[in-house]
Amino acid sequence: MSIDLAVRIGNDRLADLSDFFVKSFPVGDKEIEFKETLVLTPMLTESCQFVTLQDEWLGIDVIAQTREELEEELYAELTMLWKQSQMPDEKLGKTFQEQKSNFLEAITER
């Protein structure tokens, strides 16, 4: 953890706010790859008790207390977005249809 990217949260925890880089992620027996590496910058919540990752364009919004938990939540969210992207548009609201389109534009399946 880089000293300049570590901040104290809560009473006794340090949070690593260095960027997350995601090139691919597994879904079942497939590997979903981003055409361009996804870069997400962690941010502290207002209360400074949690760390969050957000990407409005893709629909990513995760929150956790530790970097490890945040990473787990991120990969769970990416899996959920991939599964959602497989649904017919009629079953999705307008916002989710846009995020689905953005997500499908950003990935390839291997």
Uncertain segments are none
| Number of spatially distinct domains | 1
- Helical coverage, percent range: 25-40%
Radius of gyration: 15 Å
What is the element string, with H for helices and E for strands? EEEEEEEHHE
Shape: elongated
> The biggest beta sheet, please?
3 strands, antiparallel
DSSP, total strands: 8
End-to-end Cα distance: 32 Å
Q: Hey, roughly how much beta strand do the residues contain?
A: 35-45%
Major beta sheet, strand line-up: 3-4-8
**Overall residue-averaged pLDDT value:** 88
Derived structural class: alpha+beta
- How many helices? The count is 2
Description:
This protein has one domain (3-109). The strands form three sheets. The protein has a three-stranded antiparallel β-sheet. Strands 5-6-7 form a three-stranded antiparallel β-sheet, with helices on one face. The protein has helices at 67-85, 94-106; strands spanning 6-9, 13-16, 20-27, 30-40, 43-44, 51-55, 60-64, 107-109. Helix 1 (67-85) packs across helix 2. The mean pLDDT is 88. It is elongated and about 45 Å long. Helix content is 29%, strand content 38%. The chain has 110 residues and is of the alpha+beta class. Strand 1 (6-9) and strand 2 (13-16) form a beta hairpin. The chain is built from two helices and eight strands.
